Amino acid sequence: MATIEQLGYSAFFIALTCIFAIVARRLNERLSKDGLVKDLIFEAIAAAELCGCCFELIIVADNFGVATYAIFLFTLTIWWGRNWGSATACPYTYMEQIVEGEVSFKEAALKIWAQLMGGCCIFRYVQLYWWLELAETHEGRAFEDCKADLQVNLYLGAFIEGFATLCCRLASKVISEKDARFGAFVDSFIGTSLVVAGKGKSYKNPIFIFAAFNYSGGYFNPVLATALKWGCAGNSALEHIIVYWIGSCVGAVLSVPLFKTATFRNMFLADTKTKSE
């Protein structure tokens, strides 16, 4: 049975990962010249921090339950929002910017590549910590075969990832435009709720609206899903791309025109004027 001491080892690893990321960002700020290369490094650092922490959150969820997992994720989401600056560690934010005409396809592609490199390479660091087996919860985890989280039909999984991503992005845009005093906390709560709900009935938590189904794993971030689950038994590469890349990115891109519609703005922003006006 998992103990508080074992949870402490997970908390220590997550904190250590965040500290390494802080140091790396400060070094990049001091040593790199302003420009695209500097931005790419910031993206790689953010993605490495995100994926490194989320690898350990798998341990937390498996051994300490969904409530503990949610508390960690909620806290980390706020932390990342305060420390990443312009980095996002998420590909579809740049796809949205392409649609808006804010970045070029080349710049977006390079930043997504940097995110993938940071997110995928961090596993060796995680694996080393798990290999030490300081806690019982880490025993056998460093070299075990992973299993895919998709427990539903391929296209239903893509819909779930896409719809939840759409909800997250719309909520973020509304909060940003309203400039709510506690916007970061509300945004984090919404994102955490959708992620936890997306974990499905493997946690048997009836609080969430999606709890009647088994789900996709609730990643809502293609880089995170790829870093944690690419090549895992149960999904082919094509299935992974359809669910976690196409599903999420379509949802995010759809949020751009939907947010601008008069109907949506009247409902959530009490604003009868669209941006086009």
Describe it.
The chain is mostly helical and 277 residues long. It contains eleven helices and no strands. The longest helix has 29 residues, at 36-64. The chain is globular, with a radius of gyration of 19 Å. Mean pLDDT is 86; it is low at 200-214 and 272-277.
Strand content: under 5%
Count of helical segments? Answer: 11
Helix residue percentage: 55-70%
Distance between the termini: 60 Å
Please trace the helix and strand order, writing H or E for each element: HHHHHHHHHHH
How would you state the average pLDDT, rounded? 86
Return residue spans where pLDDT drops below 50 for at least 5 consecutive residues. 200-214, 272-277
Structural class label: mainly alpha
Shape: globular
For the secondary structure, the number of strands is: 0
Radius of gyration over all CA atoms, rounded: 19 Å
Largest sheet: none
Topology, pairings included?
Blueprint: H1 4-31, H2 36-64, H3 66-83, H4 91-100, H5 105-121, H6 123-132, H7 154-178, H8 183-198, H9 222-229, H10 237-260, H11 262-268
Helix pairs in contact: 1-2, 2-3, 2-5, 2-9, 3-8, 4-5, 4-10, 5-9, 7-8, 7-10, 9-10
Key terms:
disordered C terminus; mainly alpha; 277 residues
Briefly summarize what is shown.
By secondary structure, the protein is an all-alpha fold. The chain contains eleven helices and no strands. It is globular, with a radius of gyration of 19 Å.
